[in-house]
Amino acid sequence: MNNRWISSHHAVYNCAYHLIWCPKYRRKVLVNGIDDRLKELLNQRATEHGWTIERMEVMPDHVHIFIKASPHDAPIYIVSQLKGFTSFTLRNEFPELKTKLPTLWTRSYYCETIGHISDDTIKKYIEDQKKK
After folding, report:
1. Does domain 13-73+105-132 fall into CATH 3.30.70.1290?
2. Torsion-angle region of residue 4: left (phi > 0), alpha (psi -120 to 50) or beta?
3. Any idea where the domains of the chain sit in the sequence?
4. Positions of the chain with pLDDT lower than 70, given as ranges
5. Which helix (H) or strand (E) holds 78?
6. Which residues contact 44 (CB under 8 A, 6 or more apart)?
7. CB burial readout 28-63, b (16+ within 10 A) else e
8. 107-116-5-55 Cα dihedral, nearest 10 degrees
9. Which pTM value belongs to this model?
10. 116 by DSSP, 3-state: which?
């Protein structure tokens, strides 16, 4: 089996998504340690659900994630788990977020399915975000 594919008892799959979301009002609040803690929390939640974050970049006003998941997990479920968990935890650990924003994240997000041909392109794009 190619390492690109994952197999379960009933399926062979390669489900990968490029996800992007922003803080409310696109405020630049993902700085000064909040960004590092956010990365830890995203990795923690992904591991709990059996998802693999291939690449991740936290910018001051948005988050990019390239994530692989089971076909049983819809993108809306993945995003809601990541945003809900991180919002709750970060707002408790960094009280200044409660005074700056009514909620940490906007309701919207961007999702693109990724095929095996464009894996490297998406990874490079996310890695290059910090260089801008």
Report:
1. yes
2. alpha
3. 13-73+105-132
4. 1-2, 116-118, 132
5. helix 75-93
6. none
7. ebbeeebeebbbebbeebbeeeebebbbbbbbeebb
8. -50
9. 0.85
10. helix
CB of 105 within 8 A of CB of 58?
no
Concerning whether 125 is annotated as a catalytic residue, the answer is yes
β-pair partners for 63? 21, 58
Give the chain's largest Cα–Cα span: 51
- How far apart CA 126 and CA 32 sit, in angstroms, is 20
pLDDT in tens, 70-95: 999 999 999 999 999 999 999 999 99
- The enclosing H or E element of 124 equals helix 119-127
Q: Which of 25, 77, 110, 125 is catalytic?
A: 125
Instruction: Please answer whether residues 27 and 103 qualify as being in contact, where contact means their C-beta atoms are separated by less than 8 angstroms.
Output: no
- From CA 120, how far away is CA 101, in angstroms rounded? 35
Amino acid at 27: R
